[in-house]
Hints:
By secondary structure, this protein is an all-beta fold. Helices cover 0% and strands 46% of the residues. It contains no helices and 24 strands. The strands form 7 sheets. Strands 2-8-7-4-5 form a 5-stranded mixed beta sheet, with no helix packed on it. β4 (38-42) and β5 form a beta hairpin. The protein is rod-shaped and about 120 Å long.
Amino acid sequence: PNPATSVAITTDTGISNSDFITSDDTLDISGTTEAGAFVLLTDDLNRSVSTTADSSGAFTLSNAALADGPRALKLTITDTAGNTNAGSIYNVVVDTVKPTLILSTAAADPTNLNPFTVTATFAEAVNGLTLGDINVTNGTASNLTGSGSVYTFNVIPTADGKIEVSIGANAADDTAGNSSVASNTLVRVYDGTAPTVALATPATPATKAPFTVTATFSEDVTGLVVGDITTTNGATVGSFTAVSATVYTFVVTPTAQGQVDEYATTFQGFPVGSATEAELAGFRQTWAAYDAVL
């Protein structure tokens, strides 16, 4: 007899119902052959199921449960006269595993990036992920791009503080139709507020000696160096000391009579463990004239 025609897996799940890639491990296989023919389906473990085609030649078979992976099914037909054909091989892929999902970002913690980029990496290619599937506390998600197993999107912070990003279960489906599991929760602390600084000194308004200046920041910073401090009237800066993460001292030595100003120029002042730029320009302290004959 001729091979069966219109053979299909009626339980072929996923993005296509005819690609023989499915999450159903007990496949329902249907087709058409000669009326009354004996139909035998054998899997790659040599397990078999059989049925008899009806008066129109239609038949349906359900195989025993298959393990995940590529599987070969052989369909043979024996007509009512006892003739058996060579059989036809149908290659199917059984996939019952839900794709996992990991969220990651290159943004430091804490961070001042606004927005910062998050990468969603699935264990396999998926379809159906949308911005609506992304959960963000203290922020919003935007600009979702990607395909296959890797997607990226931006997170726009709403305010300073902790931001949590996650994607719930069933956000996307793999080729076989398995829905994804929930992602991890990605946490970052957003700090978009630049630290402030105040300069102070115990020196009198008129002095003839080097004097100490204390710089006090509103939060922990790193990165302040002598080169960030600017003076006027030729005064020099030395004896720079980091007293703590918020307090620094330095000594200003006047070199000529007249007014001496000192101020912090813009520098990369980082809250500890972050990449937050502190804009410190313009915090200027003016001292009265330096007078060498006092």
